[in-house]
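quick one before i forget lol
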Amino acid sequence: MSIYSRFECIDEYPTYDEKTAICREIRTDRGNLVVYGTIMGIFGNRRPDFKEDVTKQMEDIRKLSVSGKNTCVIGDFNLSFSDDYYFTKFGRDIVRKTFSECGLSILTAERGCCVDHIAISNSYIGEDEIFVSEWNYDKKLSDHKGIMVELGGI
């Protein structure tokens, strides 16, 4: 896995499984941001290993939140939050609960037919307006839609 950024990478953090998650701290114009890139349940959400993978990744997120650093969790969550597309009650519940406890907002949660998500620390977002864009609706480029979040003032 890799994280590509125009911002300088200043630190890295271990994840429970380097095949499904990577974590780097970057220096942005608005302060440092720990970016946790993930594929939760690399083979989808219908296999037994999905629960273990998501549970362990949420433990990673809890450990990061203790540091008090602004965090962004981004990637293929293999679950949706607003509809029955890739529905998993367990996945939704544990991710929502963990993110809420860690002060993260799932900025893409209301997007339908979406398994790729972006969650960011509320303290990093501040009072900024949030803009969410999508592309590849017909999924001709990939089996995923493209999704992007912009924060006003960046």
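fyi The mean pLDDT is 91.
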